[in-house]
Target: Beta-1,4-galactosyltransferase
Amino acid sequence: MRQCLSKSWTSRLRRYVKQILFMVYFSLLVFAFFNYRSHCVETMPNMLIEMARLDNSDEGRCKLDFEKLGDAEVDIFGEPSEQSIIEANPEVQKGGKWSPSDCRSWQRVAIIIPYRDRLHHLHILLRRLHPMLQTQKIDYRIFLIEQAGTDKFNRGKLMNVGYLEAFHQGDFDCLVFQDVDLLPEDDRNLYLCDGYARHLASAIDEMRYHVMYYNYAGGVIAMNKQNFRRINGYANSYWGWGNEDDDFSARIQESGLLLTRPPPHIGRFKMVRHAKETRSEHGNEMFLGWKARWPHDGLNSLNYSVVHVREKPLYTQILVDIGHPPSSMDVYMTDHSKDVSLWWFLKYYFP
Model:
């Protein structure tokens, strides 16, 4: 009798487990179906030039032989001296400017680097960037946007400052927002813009050469000046590390822009190791309210003052006072009624 009851109970348990597993599997399928996104697209870098040819004559324009481009040796440990980088790049002009002498580049590009107290990383990056951009025959200028003072770092605000200040120095078609600790590994990963938002760092070694999550737009991203204004730039309200790039990606998505990426084998970057910055206080909670803040938190609400502008041999340094963070981040979270839903939050991170 007991043996029969045991067999019956085991059979019923197996049936229940199968039903639960089926329901979990079915729920995941339904979640994936309704949350399908097609706004992140992989495109080959040479398409940036091919698409530009549709709108512009290629007479006198720079030609690139992609078969001769490829992986480059990237050293993230040895720190070069500034003088050695200058000597290795004799054609770079004061202010970190260079343009090809034998052809016209397809775009004029401003490289925006938010910065504070990372001289070791900066030298390693400049040793890599200058020769790579010259190999790609890009008309470029490197801007170092340095935060004055000792308050928490505000990456988003510095990006916005870089956008505005770059146009005080010249006219640019494309802006590449570049973290100081990331080194591109492949010369085929062109530092150019398309008509959308181009996430250049599609595979970082610290993330095992995978995108952190589907909508990730951090590290290095290129965008033309019209689209950057269209999304109101970065949010100014994230003090400390994290979430400002999530907010930026959400703006891209909600504006109807594609997020394009090079394939992972081309969009590879190495990260120079360093101690992590202090995380943004209540960053995830603030991100829930990004949509309500978006219309008035960005380029149109930016306040800062320039301490000085100096043209260094390898870059243009712009030291800025961006103010102080509020005593509490609660000032950005006074009305939770307009926060995005938990469903939206889950869909954003787990599409």
User: Anything to note?
Assistant: The mean pLDDT is 89. The two ends are 51 Å apart (CA to CA). The longest helix spans residues 2-34.
